Amino acid sequence: MAVARGTIHGIVGENGAGKSTLMSILYGFYQADRGEIRINGERVAIRHSDDAIAAGIGMVHQHFMLVKPFTVLENVILGAEEGASLQRSAAKARGILGELAETYGLEVDPDMVVGDLSVGLQQRVEILKALYRQAEILILDEPTGVLTPSEADHLFRILESLKAQGKTIIFITHKLREIMSITDTVSVMRRGAMTATHPTSEMSVTRLAELMVGRAVELRVDKTPARPGAEILSVRDLTVARNGTERLKSISFGIRAGEILGVAGVAGNGQSELLEVLWGTAAATAGEVLLKGAPLDVSRGGRAAERRRQGIGHVPEDRHRHGIIMPFGVWENASYGYHRSPSFTSGPFSLPGRMKDAARELIETFDVRPDDPLLKTANLSGGNQQKIVLGREIRQNPDLLLIGQPTRGVDIGAIEYIHREIVALRDQGKAILLVSVELDEILGLSDRVIVMFDGRISGERVIEETDENDLGMLMAGVDQREGKNVTASKMG
Amino acid sequence: MDFDILIQILGATLRVATPILLACLAGLYSERSGIIDIGLDGKMLIAAFASAATAAVVGNVWVALGVAVLASSALALIQGLAAITLRGNQLISGAAINMLALGTAYLLSQTMFGTGGQTPGLGPDQRFMGIELPFHDALGGFYQQVVSGQSVIVYFALATVPLTWWVLYRTRFGLRLRAVGEAPNAVDSAGISVARLRYSAVLIAGALCGVAGAYLATAQAAAYTDGMTANRGFIALAALIFAKWRPYPALGACLLFGFVEAVGYQVQGNLNVDSRVLATLVDFLESSLPYILTVVILAGFVGKATPPAAGGVPYVKER
Amino acid sequence: MSQLPKWADSFLVPLLSVLLALVVSGLVVLAIGENPLTAVRVMITGAFGSTYNLGFTLFYFTNFVFTGLAVAVAFHAAQFNIGGEGQATFAGIGAALIGLSLGETHWLLVLPLGILVAFLFGAAWAAVPAYLQVRRGSHIVITTIMFNYIAAGLLVALLGNFLKPAGSAAPQSRTFDEGAHLPRLDEVLGWIGIEAQRMEGNIMFFFALAACAVVWLLLWRTHLGFEIRAYGHNEKAADYAGISGFRIVMLVMLLSGGLAGLMATNTVLGQQHSLVLGFVEGAGFTGIAVALMGRSHPFGVALAALLFGALYQGGAELAFEMPAIPSKMIVIIQALIILFVGAMENIVRIPLARIFMFVQQSRKA
To answer: Which parts of the sequence belong to the ABC transporter domain (chain A) (predicted)?
Structure first.
């Protein structure tokens, strides 16, 4: 791979294609077994991160490398201090930060505690850290995953201005549209190899997707219009407060049988709290929730088992942390959460034989690979793990399925499959609540969409009457259709 | 209460608080770097033995202090090896260090002096004695009993508090130390060695525990006795949590523990009870009050104590 | 890091780690001028050389099975119960109450009551730290340690003021009457017609074996056990699955404390027949080593308890035969085993993984 100075170079590839490993090697987190790195034609040895920094490489990691309780200033000088006493470093950094803010439009208050900053601003601190160390090559790993569309636009403007100043930018993403809009050249990685490098102008989204997967991919989900039935879930004036701040502010909506309701929004605008309250793992402060007309107990947490018995299933947002026990065998995870159901138990005893049978069925129905129920779940790919969670919940035949980020960390092949399963479930007359930060996914699967911003529903749309742009504005709290700004309504 | 008694108690408070304070600051360095240290007690214990044994054999208390620091640091190094290089469980290595210290001190005292779990008594010239500051007698009272007349280690411990504050918040090392306990990945990606920072922190902790142990055996007492730290390492840990890992509050917390213990000593000698139930209660509280206080503090009065975010977690580079 | 096959992970790694710890212990013996090989010989004879010695080994084994299971059960729910010492001490007070009050009855009554009361006392002593951990966030490691010393203080106060017979100087209660002595192993063997020399272990030995089986059943064959293990692996996923963390931690710690308490039944009612100051003698801490070495599996715990039983009994003989090696040498061995098995196993694991990888690659080639 070669990257020209003063360009923005995109790298795309599926999960596990080797993008992050490549960048970690460039940044000295790992060492390559073979091969060499040349900067400006000169061979450089990058053994540690400090070698990379010295070579002028700066990196904005997908998961920020920031010390949350530190101020912006402390984060910037960490590792680039001037001498043993801090005062001198602080004074110098303050000056440089001012200059950088002016040159690139990177304003951040140096005395703010980083943990209190928005995600977009935290990312700006990461870029500042790299520039403070005089980086000439800036690597950004999935930088827009956590940003609102407008924050992403701002980031792109910053990148353009960096490019104009002669900096080189390597931009890693799985979002093909971003590649098309911002990069000059693009490289595609597949199974650890760089399969192609082209000028972006010669590429298209479908062509990139094919190169990534190695075959033609159906990006659109085939589905017939919904035939909604009776209302399954009804949420009224639901409010959730945590540590004194309101995370959900009196929201109301309903879902009918045979319908997929998409919940769009940038992460952290109340979607997780909504799922938690509906699932009974967090308490609501006010409001009520009706399932098939009967009220659910939302006043306390610890109600997940009860929800299951009432006919709700849940594919959690973060399957590593919530949906699955990694060191458990596949067969144990295939009944996790339903392990007390009569089919798997006899008195206080569990019935491993029956659990394994159920796991075999699940593996077959949902095409989990490898097809060994005794295997440790951690040894399966993200896509197959997600199939276990999704399959487990679907097999219990719930009336309502809550799904959070169904394809996060899942490769494209499995995404297609998972999307088809979700639509099939809808066609069986189930109600589905789909929370996703991926707009493509929301647009492709939902029949109706609500958008969350700052704990409120900033807008509701029927899928046929909206598009990416419209939802993007709603995600930033602006409803173009009603011509009002949702943030402003907070004042009332 | 008589004013003289109060002054006596305050003087004792300072003396009793000193080893706890040193261990507490030791824990502060270690835990701020992300290494949970339940082996403070063992490091103090081996240092107490090492100092008493050296003082008995060599006769020079400063050499004894040096050997104590070395012995404690050796254990710290084992802990560091287990926690940092080998990425083992920090609670388990800490517990093992405590046992190792207890067993080793016993074995060595048996081998060296033939007295299992004890060292010979030390004379005044083999110990750290009280230093009378100028005007010791002239000013009397509070000055004489509390401020002056303490051993050099007491003054050292008190000076370590502002020093630690300065290191932590005013130096490059302190910035990096605080960072590595919160977000080692940030430190690593800034091109700083996580392992080196953590080893330095663990060794500082070892040295401070060494001084604390030497204080116990050569200043407060005049010999090593089996298990003489009496779990001060754990009380120091509780004080550290109470102080939310900050140096000045750590001083306050340790003085509180010292005060409780000092009051206990005072009461012990002056209480006469007839009832058996009361006598049981008094005996019980006398031995257990510091521990009960620790539990109560951990259970209720700490408020929201947020430990360094990376505490107890071995650092592994993430992909 | 490269993966090891399961059998190597569960057997080879702990085995080699223990060997390493024993080698280092041998070096310690060498350093104080004694021959480690002679020491090993004396210890093995001391532990297994005669029926009488074997009886003592089995007595210690019983203690360590209980305290080892206590730590192991808690480990499965990711709780580090370092308070077995205190829980056993407090349980000893309960067992002594039975022994003192029911000495004129029969062991058939004393045995079930002694088990029940010691279990409850041990569980109660673990309940407070457990509750404080889940409801108040107090670090369970520190609180259980504090409770060790509080229990010790309580025992001293009670022995000194109440339980010690008037005029006696020794800090121990009066000896229980015959009816409160649990049957010794040789007596049990006598029931099935086997004549044996006096064997110091007692009927609790069989309860220890049964406890291993029960704990295994609980952990791997009940839905509660499923939940305990799930919670231990991933606390955050428990809530999602409808598992109450509060319930799991409380139940596990009650069970853990109760198991540690049974050590007191074995010692107080089965062997000493009197409540003696410091009767736990570090068995609670040994439980940590036993659980670590046994990989928290009841079968492993039983094996490790046998090793430690032999080390204790053999160590006592060793102190007698080779006075330069005090019986506290066992504390060092124990510490080294905990260190190597529990916190430094990567010393063994990393080279082992390399060897396995090398073997695999050369097989492919």
So the answer is: 1-216, 233-479
Angle between helices B40-58 and B61-80 (to 10 degrees): 150
What angle is formed at CA A341 by the lines to CA A335 and CA A343, rounded to 5 degrees? 85
Amino acid of residue C256: S
Does one domain contain both A282 and A429?
Answer: yes
Domain count, chain A: 2
Alpha-carbon distance A148 to A248, whole Å?
19
Residue A449: strand pairing partners? A262, A461
Q: What share of chain A is helix, strand, coil (3-state, %, to 5)?
A: 40, 25, 40
- Residue A461 pairs in a beta bridge with A449
Best B33, B175, B192 residue to mutate vs chain A (most A CBs within 10 Å): B175
Interface contact flag, A69 B317, Cβ < 8 Å? no
Reply yes or no: is the peptide bond before residue C112 cis, omega within 30 of 0. Answer: no
Contact (Cβ atoms closer than 8 angstroms) between residue A114 and residue A122: yes
The CB-side HSE value for A33 (13 A sphere, CA atoms) comes to: 1
- Which residue numbers of C have CB closer than 8 Å to A's CBs? 221-227, 229-230, 233-234, 236-237, 239-244
Convert the pLDDT of each residue in C195-210 to its tens digit.
Answer: 888 999 999 999 999 9
Does A247 share its domain with A196? no
pTM score, whole prediction: 0.90
A464: containing domain = 231-328+397-489
Q: How far is A250 from chain C (nearest CA, A)?
A: 24
Give the gap in angstroms from C-alpha B65 to the nearest C-alpha of chain A: 29
- A236 and A123, same structural domain? no
CB contact under 8 A, C147 and B295: yes
Residue of B nearest to A53 (CA): B191
Spans of all domains in chain B: 3-128+139-301
> Does A220 reside within a domain?
no
Phi, psi of C265 (to 5 degrees): -60, -45
The set of chains that have 3 or more CB pairs under 8 A with A is B, C
Q: From C349, which residue of chain B is nearest by alpha-carbon distance?
A: B86
Of A53, A78, A84, the CB nearest to B186: A78
B182 in contact with A, Cβ within 8 Å: yes
- Chain C CB contacts of A339 under 8 Å are 223, 226-227, 241
**The amino acid at B212:** A
> A3 with A9: CB under 8 angstroms?
yes
Is the distance from CB of C96 to CB of C88 less than 8 angstroms? no
What distance in Å separates the CA atoms of residue C107 and residue C112, rounded to the nearest whole number?
Answer: 9
Residue A373 falls inside a structural domain: no
Fold (topology level) of B3-128+139-301: ABC transporter involved in vitamin B12 uptake, BtuC (1.10.3470)
- CA neighbor of B99 nearest in space, from B269, B227, B276: B227
Task: Show residues of chain B in contact with A84, CB under 8 Å.
Answer: 171-173
pLDDT in tens, A353-410: 999 999 999 999 888 888 899 999 988 888 889 899 999 999 988 999 999 988 887 7
Collapsed DSSP state (helix, strand, coil) of residue A365: helix
- C223–A281 CB contact, under 8 Å: no
Cis amide linkage into residue B290, ω under 30° from 0: no
- Within 8 A of C158 by CB-CB distance, chain B residues are 280
CA atoms within 13 A on the CB side of B59: 0
Contact A78 B190 (CB under 8 A): yes
CB contact under 8 A, A66 and B171: no
Q: In CATH, what class is C56-323?
A: mainly alpha
In a shared domain, residues A183 and A235:
no
Q: What is the pLDDT of residues C298-313, one digit of tens each?
A: 999 999 999 999 999 9
pLDDT tier at B87 (50, 70, 90 boundaries)? Answer: very high
Q: CATH number of the domain at A91, please.
A: 3.40.50.300
Q: Rounded to whole angstroms, how far apart are CA atoms A137 and A120?
A: 21
